[in-house]
Specification:
Length: about 190
């Protein structure tokens, strides 16, 4: 348990709760009001329900993040990753496979889980993949998808997202190194 109210993780949990989580809930309530309006068409109501369902899913993810920031998950890392990927890929045709185990210190589980989550979001959004594979061992974590990423912008500048920048920063903070080749990432744990 992350019991220190002054820790960085607790501070982030408070910020998420008091900001994003509250705003998402407010948007959800506004949608509920629109869905109940007798003057809207059946088609519009159905579309609003889809949006409401998406907002509820994001709200649940934010609440899970708040919980995870305040508490250490006792589950094996492979199970945490499987749950995260199942949630992230639920509305897609992308299959995933998580194999192996690692004896990673619980202090690093959250950071590694966030990195895998970022990679999966990038795969889902940008690579056009149909399968994601995560291999765990005590030496390394390997992440790969069967899609392809555009690595150059039209003006020939290197392209890197804020999400990948955050991933590299997280790994640097934990002392882990990452190597990248095409759609394959290897996080060295030694």
């Amino acid at each position: 348990m992350n019991s220190s109210p002054n820790s960085e993780r607790s501070r982030l949990a408070r910020e998420l709760h008091d900001g994003l989580a509250q705003e998402l809930s407010a948007i959800g309530y506004q949608l509920d009001s629109l869905i109940g309006d007798e003057l809207i068409t059946h088609s519009a109501r159905q579309n609003l329900r889809k949006v409401r369902f998406s907002i509820s899913g994001v709200t649940d993810q934010v609440r899970d993040e708040i919980y995870n920031l305040r508490n250490e998950d006792p589950q094996e890392l492979s199970e945490i990753i499987k749950q995260q990927l199942a949630t992230l890929l639920s509305n897609s045709e992308i299959l995933f496979e998580v194999t192996g185990r690692t004896n990673l210190a619980s202090a690093h589980k959250y950071e590694i889980t966030r990195c895998i989550r970022e990679l999966a979001l990038n795969s889902r959004t940008h690579s056009g993949c149909s399968k994601i594979t995560v291999e765990l061992s005590d030496d390394a974590i390997r992440y790969e998808d069967d899609g392809s990423f555009a690595t150059k912008l039209e003006n020939n500048q290197n392209r890197i997202s804020y999400g990948l920048t955050g991933l590299f920063e997280r790994l640097e903070k934990t002392g882990f190194k990452v190597s990248v080749e095409n759609s394959r990432y290897e996080i060295s744990l030694k």
